[in-house]
């Protein structure tokens, strides 16, 4: 983005005026006009939201039943191709994407480990979301992580859902099993670093121990794949339907971190980088 651009962001809104025959005043939908209170957009760019289960706030269309939820769904099911025997590790685990990743993995029978930045979030992951293990990465720092993983993931990690990046991730790679899968979803620890437009040279992750032999060559046999949720949007409707069913049945829990007023936009956004949120950050303007 350039200075002066409208900050990007997804909006769940209501049509107040329309010249498009297919879009009626009062229609609800998602659009991406950025941080604005009102916008003129083509009717065709408004994404209709499937009916949400009764009693569920409509803002969930921005979170668990929206882009972050779909990121978790496609990332864990299609990119990581989880199996019930997998041990799954996810970081930023109490956030909008991570909390759904862990719950879907649990629904599919996996053992789930999460990392988050406060004791309260660790408790939330274990007691409310059903994670098998969780730890506070601010106290279990990368130098201590290896020993911690021996305790909480004694059989190694099969699936790594990467939201954060940085030093701790190298330790996770070194604890992965043969045939492991890594979904590179994001790298939030780097987004707000000064000068991140020019990425800092980072030491390469240690060579993963999960190796297979091909002739004289040793090759890692974990699969590492980056992905964008929008690549899977052709399957958006059935995915949302399935997740809405889970929400209705109480199998997929959610929290929202709601801020009030357009003026709170900047503080709400910056709080993502200090972990003040649990679940999706929503601004109710
Ligand atoms: N690939 C895609 O299509 C796609 C789509 C959506 C989102 N994403 C990515 O998914 C990730 C999660 O996004 P989200 O919207 O769900 O955000 P979120 O998890 O709701 O909020 C971000 C969380 O990241 C944690 N965090 C911030 N700085 C950190 C640091 N330096 N080290 C470790 N943890 C840190 C904080 O939790 P703690 O208190 O635990 O630190 C914070 O609450 C992001 O990387 C985002 O870019 C990717």
Radius of gyration: 20 Å
What does the main sheet amount to? 6 strands, parallel
Bound molecules: NADP nicotinamide-adenine-dinucleotide phosphate
Mean pLDDT over the residues: 92
Percent range for helical residues? Answer: 25-40%
Overall shape: it is: globular
Count of alpha/pi helices: 8
Low-confidence stretches: none
* β-sheet strand percentage: 15-25%
* Topology order in helix (H) and strand (E) letters: EEEHEHEHEHEHEHEEEHEHE
Secondary-structure arrangement, i.e. CATH architecture of the largest domain:
3-Layer(aba) Sandwich
Number of domains: 2
- Order of strands side by side in the largest beta sheet? 6-5-4-7-8-11
CATH class of the largest domain: Alpha Beta
Condensed summary:
With 285 residues, the chain is an alpha/beta fold. It is 27% helix and 21% strand.
């Amino acid at each position: 983005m350039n200075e002066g651009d409208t900050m990007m962001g997804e909006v769940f809104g209501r049509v107040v005026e329309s010249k498009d025959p297919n879009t009626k005043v009062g229609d609800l939908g998602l659009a991406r006009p950025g941080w604005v209170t009102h916008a003129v957009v083509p009717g065709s760019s408004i994404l209709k939201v499937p009916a949400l289960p009764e009693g569920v706030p409509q803002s969930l269309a921005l979170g668990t039943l929206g882009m972050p939820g779909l990121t978790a769904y496609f990332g864990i099911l299609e990119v990581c191709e989880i199996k019930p025997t997998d041990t799954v590790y996810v970081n930023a685990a109490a956030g909008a994407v991570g909390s759904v990743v862990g719950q879907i993995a649990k629904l599919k029978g996996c053992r789930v480990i999460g990392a988050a930045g406060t004791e309260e979030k660790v408790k939330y992951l274990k007691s409310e979301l059903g994670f098998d293990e969780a730890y506070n990465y601010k106290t279990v720092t990368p130098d201590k992580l290896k020993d911690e993983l021996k305790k909480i993931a004694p059989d190694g990690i099969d699936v790594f859902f990467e939201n954060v990046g940085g030093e701790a991730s190298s330790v996770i790679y070194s604890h992965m099993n043969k045939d492991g899968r890594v979904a590179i979803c994001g790298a939030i620890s780097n987004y707000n670093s000064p000068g991140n437009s020019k990425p800092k040279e980072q030491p390469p992750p240690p060579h993963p121990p999960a190796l297979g032999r091909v002739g004289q060559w040793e090759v890692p046999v974990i699969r590492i794949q980056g992905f964008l949720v929008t690549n899977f949007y052709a399957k958006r409707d059935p995915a949302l339907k399935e997740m809405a069913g889970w929400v209705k049945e109480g199998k997929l829990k959610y929290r929202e971190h709601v801020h009030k007023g357009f003026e709170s936009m900047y503080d709400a956004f910056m709080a993502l980088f200090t972990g003040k949120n649990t679940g999706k950050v929503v601004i109710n303007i």
